[in-house]
Amino acid sequence: MKKISILALIVILSKTISAQQDAMFTHYMYNTLGVNPAYAGSREALAVTALHRSQWLGFPGAPVTQTFTAHTPMKSDKIGLGLSVINDKIGPMQTASVYADFAYHLKLNSKSKLSLGVKAGGNLFNATLADLQVTQSNDVAFASNLQSRFLPNFGFGAYYYTQRFYAGLSIPKLLENRFETNQISGSANLFWEKRHYFVIAGTMIDINETFQFKPTALVKITNGSPAQADLTAQFVYNKKFALGAMYRTNSAVGALLGFFLGEQLYGGYSFDWSTVNKTGRYNSGTHEIMLRYDFIYRDKAKIKSPRYF
C-alpha cells in the first residue's frame, strides 16, 4: 500500500472535510478562463492553453494539477465560447472538473470593452482510501475507496479590458455542494465545495523600445480561509523573452521565465519557494510549465494588434 504524508492523513481523518482553496497557479495570468468565464473570446483567436503544476516536489502526497482551456470568439465579436478542464490531486484525493464558458462582449468605446460571462459544468471527487497504509489494521474508515456523483455547479464573471489593461471579478462556483457519505464513522460530510471570489488585474507598460513592464495581481477570497493575493512583476525583452518574480501572501515566492515563438506560441516555466512547507528542508520546490497557442486569427489585421493578455 502507498504511504502518504502526515498532512494528507490529517485531511482524510478530519470529521468534516472542506475543499481547499481552488488550485493555485503561478501562471495565473495565463489561466484566466479557469476563474473568469467573461474572458472567453477576448484574445480574438482560438486560444488553447495547457498547464502542469507539481507542488512541493518530493513531499509525499503533495498537490499535482493539470489544466486545459480553450476559447474563441464566434462570428460576431460580441460572443465568446470556452472550455475549462482541470485535474487536481492531493494525497489520495482527486477532483476532476469540466466547465463550458459563455461570454458577451460590450464595446464601451473605441479602446475598451466590458465582458459578462457564465460558466456551467461540474466536479467529480474520489478518494483512494483503500491504498493508504494505516497504523490500525481492519479500520473500516479506510476499507474502501470513495467516489462522489457528478456535482453540478455554475458561476459568473465580469471582465473589463483594453489593449494594455484588464480587471475582472468572478465567482466561478456559486453552489457549495456537499458529498455525503456514511463510510467514515461520525462523519456525514466528506467533501464540501467552498465558494471562491476572485479579483484580477494587470497592465502592460512600455519602458522603452526594447523593454516592457507587465505587473499583474490575483486575489482569492473564501469563507473560512484568509484572503490570499498573488502579486507578479514581469519584464518583457524585445517581445521575445519574459522574466519575472511572484509573491504569494503567507505562502511562497517564485520566479517566472517565458518565451515567445512568433505571434502565436508562448511558453513559460516557473519555480516557487514555499515559506510554509519549507522548500529545501521538506521539499524540492514547486515547478510549473505552460504553453499557449493561438490557432486562428479572424483576419490579418488582427495580427498587427498585440494581445498582451
What does this structure look like?
The protein is 4% helix and 52% strand. The strands form two sheets. A 14-stranded antiparallel β-barrel has the order 1-2-3-4-5-7-8-11-13-14-15-16-17-18. The chain has 309 residues and is mainly beta. It has two helices and 18 strands. The termini are far apart.
Write down how many β-strands occur, each being a DSSP E stretch of 2 or more residues: 18
Helix proportion: under 10%
Low-confidence stretches: 1-20, 183-189
Largest β sheet strand count, sense and barrel closure: 14 strands, antiparallel, barrel
Distance between the termini: 45 Å
Radius of gyration: 21 Å
Q: What is the average per-residue confidence, as pLDDT, rounded to a whole number?
A: 85
Strand sequence of the main sheet, in spatial order?
Answer: 1-2-3-4-5-7-8-11-13-14-15-16-17-18
Order of helices and strands: HEEEEEEEEEEEEEEEEEEH
Strand residues, percent? over 45%
Number of helices: 2
* Class by SSE composition: mainly beta
Shape: globular
